[in-house]
Design brief:
12 helices, alpha+beta, elongated, 2 domains, Nucleotidyltransferase, domain 5, seven-stranded antiparallel sheet
Length: 363
């Protein structure tokens, strides 16, 4: 598995200025390449390299490998959409590889290419990131964010063998409650909802003012809400995977692909629905589970919160409101999200074949 180790650089004042100049020159080269690509309608990596490689090296002073990375960045940008001419921010990210970047974990420095040659710059990171860097492999991205420089390095991580679970920890993901499992553990979404509501109201006020100070404030606030939601999802996913591993269970999740297109929300609920980061939480659970050797399966989400776990009766009327479940057939009642988690767990146990049996057929 590939993971990203994020480290914070601690350059001197002169090194910070040099990194800034390098990023600006690199993105100037990207804009030049984009102009040539747009005029000649050449967007493939090989075609762009033939068209611009020597000009980029001569005009912008980039090294051979950096010129290649600039060409690749432009080509990858046009893979998204070839109908719009791509432009790059002056301090947009730069990509590096092992030819132009080397880690020295012994003294916490990184040897990185700049316009004036290699520079050795100190960095800080956590112990987990330091262990990951021992197996670095592939591309690293230099990123400028909020006045600081960071390197995001791709690293290899060893997967553990997936074990055969006898049971599954069913997890229901929602907006009101971010996640509820069939053990009745509730990860509430009140804090995230309040943060999003507060930021949404503040953005509206600042956008209405349209002053320089308001724009500075908006820029400072940008991404803060997203980072908080990401931090919350990381903690929830870590807890869920740890519980499943400690109890020798797999994890069962609903397949919520295209859920926003399949449901209709009232106007007051649209903002909350659009900011619902269920896919991020699912991704975090999947990669953490893979590292821990825990099986994750996806089940059909239809009627998970409308089916009675006791008698199996399915009816829209069983769901009295967002939080309340009460079966109209047998009278069983409880928290709707917990009922859904129980049904998710049972569906996974019924539909998931034995891993050992699968392996035996492949040998």
């Amino acid at each position: 598995m590939k993971l990203i180790a994020q480290v914070k650089l601690q350059p001197t004042k002169e090194q910070a200025e040099l990194l800034s100049q390098t990023m600006q020159r690199f993105n100037e080269a990207c804009n030049f390449i984009s102009e040539q690509a747009w005029e000649n309608k050449q967007f493939r990596r090989v075609d762009l390299q033939k068209l611009t490689y020597y000009d980029v090296k001569a005009q912008f002073g980039l090294g051979a490998q950096s010129a290649i990375h600039a060409i690749y960045k432009v080509s990858d940008a046009y893979k998204i959409d070839k109908r719009v001419k791509r432009e790059f921010r002056p301090l947009g990210s730069i990509s590096y590889d092992e030819r132009i970047l080397a880690w020295r974990l012994s003294d916490s420095t990184v040897n990185i290419w700049t316009l004036t040659g290699r520079a050795r710059i100190s960095f800080v990171c956590g112990e987990r990131q330091r262990e990951m860097l021992k197996n670095f492999d592939g591309q690293a991205d230099l990123i400028y964010r909020n006045g600081e420089f960071y390197l995001h390095q791709v690293c290899n991580a060893d997967d553990q063998d997936i074990t055969d679970p006898d049971e599954f920890l069913g997890v229901d993901m929602g907006v009101a409650n971010i996640a509820v499992d069939n053990d009745k553990t509730i990860h509430q979404g009140k804090t995230v909802k309040s943060v999003r509501y507060r930021h949404r109201q503040l953005r509206q006020k600042l956008q209405t003012k349209q002053t320089k100070s308001a724009r500075r404030r908006l820029k400072k606030l940008s991404g803060k809400e997203r980072r908080f939601a990401t931090w919350t999802n990381h903690n929830i996913s870590k807890t869920i995977v740890a519980k499943a591993k400690d109890t020798d269970r797999g994890i069962a999740l609903e397949d919520l692909t295209h859920i926003r297109e399949r449901i209709t929300a009232k106007k007051p609920q649209r903002a909350a629905l659009s900011s619902w980061s269920f896919d991020q939480l699912r991704t975090f659970i999947e990669y953490k589970a893979q590292l821990s050797g825990v099986l994750v399966v996806m089940v059909d989400p239809r009627n998970t919160s409308r089916q009675c776990p006791c008698c199996g009766h399915i009816a829209k009327a069983n769901r009295k409101n967002q939080s309340k479940f009460s079966c109209v057939s047998c009278g069983f009642s409880g928290l709707a999200d917990h009922i859904a988690a129980v049904n998710i767990s049972r569906r996974a146990s019924v539909t998931t074949p034995n891993i050992s049996a699968i392996r035996a057929t492949l040998l």
